[in-house]
């Protein structure tokens, strides 16, 4: 956690999730009133009139972590929003005050009346300090995907070639089938015994109770051309489609470096156009090889 109590926030996950600055101030006061530095969604709720939603909790703790006000101290199989964090009260006060001020100033891009909305998202390089408010306000990819996952009602489609089994997002994805969300994951080279993909998929499978494993389907798109001695084709797309209404498309693999220190870029699209993305995904998914878990 940082010791610079005058630092300007570089992550604005709370600004993206909350519309009411008074709500953020109330959360700040609830955290500052805690008897210890250990913060969970449950004990923050005790100081609020209206409990945190899953998306609010995810945005809160993501923002505190990314801005150096909290560190993760314990995980929970229910997902990131239920983790325990060690919070620096002064830093949390700084971060949440800045987030509330940003909301009050309406620093976000104005909404339009168009049916389809497009927003840029990014992972900024490690150590990079944005000089403009516009760059500082660009949502980070990790928070964006996590919020999409928490908001899923019926279906999530994921295409990604590479995974990090230690990533917090892995537990969040495993929570989807457990709450009845149909989850389709398209990847590559699952037969590779040395790759992290196999480890990640087996970890997710273990986190899903037997009753809900039918909600989780994995397919592998990869072919090696023996004659040419090279790859014929493979999954290279990085896509997350939620409920056929919101879609992330970008450069980031679901690995720690891609979601924390690399320079990665993408877009989030909302609206009717997402149905087209879901159709493309579904046809490629059906073409791909089914993977029997555990591997």
Automatic annotation (TrEMBL):
SMART domains: PLDc. PROSITE patterns: PLD. It comes from the Archaea. Residues 231-258 form the PLD phosphodiesterase domain. InterPro entries: PLD-like_dom, PLipase_D/transphosphatidylase. It holds the Pfam family PLDc_2. GO terms for biological process: cardiolipin biosynthetic process. GO terms for molecular function: phosphatidyltransferase activity. This is Phosphatidylserine/phosphatidylglycerophosphate/ cardiolipin synthase family protein. It comes from Haloferax volcanii. The lineage of its organism: Archaea, Methanobacteriati, Methanobacteriota, Stenosarchaea group, Halobacteria.
């Amino acid at each position: 956690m940082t010791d610079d109590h005058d630092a300007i926030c570089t992550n604005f996950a709370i600004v993206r999730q909350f519309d009411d600055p008074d709500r953020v101030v109330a959360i700040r006061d609830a955290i500052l009133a805690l008897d210890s530095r250990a913060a969970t969604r449950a004990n923050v709720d005790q100081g609020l009139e209206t409990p945190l939603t899953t998306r609010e909790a995810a945005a809160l703790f993501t923002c505190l972590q990314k801005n150096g006000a909290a560190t993760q101290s314990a995980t929970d199989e229910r997902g990131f929003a239920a983790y325990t964090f060690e919070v620096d009260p002064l830093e949390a006060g700084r971060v949440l005050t800045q987030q509330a001020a940003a909301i009050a100033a309406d620093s976000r891009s104005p909404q339009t009346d168009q049916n389809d909305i497009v927003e840029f998202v990014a992972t900024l390089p490690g150590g990079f300090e944005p000089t403009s408010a516009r760059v500082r306000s660009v949502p980070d990819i990790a928070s964006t995907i996590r919020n999409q996952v928490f908001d899923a009602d019926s279906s999530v489609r994921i295409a990604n070639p590479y995974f990090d089994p230690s990533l917090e997002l892995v537990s969040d994805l495993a929570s989807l089938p457990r709450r009845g969300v149909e989850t389709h994951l398209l990847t590559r080279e699952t037969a590779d015994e040395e790759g992290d993909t196999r480890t990640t998929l087996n970890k997710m499978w273990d986190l899903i109770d037997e009753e809900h494993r039918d909600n989780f389907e994995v397919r592998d798109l990869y072919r090696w051309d023996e004659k040419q001695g090279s790859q014929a084709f493979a999954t290279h797309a990085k896509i997350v489609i939620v409920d056929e209404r919101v879609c992330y498309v970008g450069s980031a693999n679901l690995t720690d470096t891609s979601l924390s220190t690399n320079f990665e870029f993408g877009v989030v699209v909302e609206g009717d156009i997402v149905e087209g993305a879901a159709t493309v995904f579904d046809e490629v998914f059906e073409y791909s090889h089914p993977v029997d878990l555990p591997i």
